[in-house]
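Lecture notes, unit on binding sites. The following record was shown on slide 14. It pairs a sequence with adenosine-5'-triphosphate.
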Amino acid sequence: MSAIHLRNLVKRFGDFTALQPMDLDIADGEFMALLGPSGCGKSTTMNMIAGMEEPSEGRILFGERDMAGVPMGGRGVGFVFQNYAIFTHMTVRQNLSYGLRMTGKPAAEIERRVGSIAELLQLSPMLDRKADRLSVNILQRVAIGRSAIMEPAIFLLDEPLSNVDAAFRAVMRTELKQLQREFRQTMVYVTHDQLEAMTMADRIAVMDHGVLQQVGTPLEVYNHPANVFVARFIGAPGMNLLPGRLADSDRGAVVDLGPLGASARLPDQLAAAARASSGELLYGFRPEETTIVKDAPGLALAVTFVERIGARTIVHFDAGSESVKAVFDNDVDLTIGASAIVSPNADSVRLFDAATGAAIGRA
Ligand code: ATP
């Protein structure tokens, strides 16, 4: 079995704790992304799974098997790192077949497996090219192929696409997902790029400052962030978060947003959960979940910036100490200095406890 279980895993470097106690279960055949900003402990976690770093505390299990003391070579994992590690004096074919040749596989099997991995990674036309003649993009493809061809039960990838160009990265996102579907490995993928995590992973483990913040499917972390860190980190732009207090109005429970006025009526369940909190709230809504309204309740805001990004337009609004961003189709007719009434779509409103940062109303 190639499920991975992290139990109370801790890593310290001297006095510095790079990873706070972390529990994580990665199912057999699951694609798990470790996502977070630079320095959050993603690579440290991955290196411990790989056997390159010893945990300071806690356990790592592959299925039922405790990995304590098991060297890297004995773990049956494949790796790909940011910097491709391939033999430049060899051809693509020699690179791809290297591991299989070392383990003494029959020539016919090697040829079959090289053919199929080359096909999957679009390397077939260049199998006999020397690696030192290839672009960085292709070299990283060869590096992925060289590891994947061994069909490891666990495949670990640490920022494998960060050195390749943007267009190629988009292609590789699809290919890596296909590769994993084909071989059904358990895949752990370290990235700081939420697009990579959102598009490829079955589930995402979001990390910050050595602390696991939330584990969930891409839609769970986007729709129901567990705390304000995840709310801001996931989404481009991240969630709008406005400080306010729970208040009663003739419409029912609302959030008093100070100079911005009162929010729309809160759904009953959310209001009930908010009553059980300290009452100091952050009122959250996604930039993609806003509508400009006329003669209807909403937040009256002035436009400070208009960012045209092709199909969509991001409009920035002045909201006192905060700024609010909203994403519209590109035919939106707003210019800097204009005023608009911005209405968060009712179902998309999320509340957070301002003191703890934790989401309100979800377990
Ligand atoms: P990045 O994407 O920048 O690599 P990361 O999330 O992978 O970020 P890690 O490389 O896991 O982060 O590092 C987590 C923290 O541990 C960082 O503050 C880093 O400086 C520190 N760290 C990592 N390795 C060591 C080491 N060998 N000695 C001391 N500190 C370390």
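Take-home: The CA atoms of residues 289 and 345 lie 5 Å apart.
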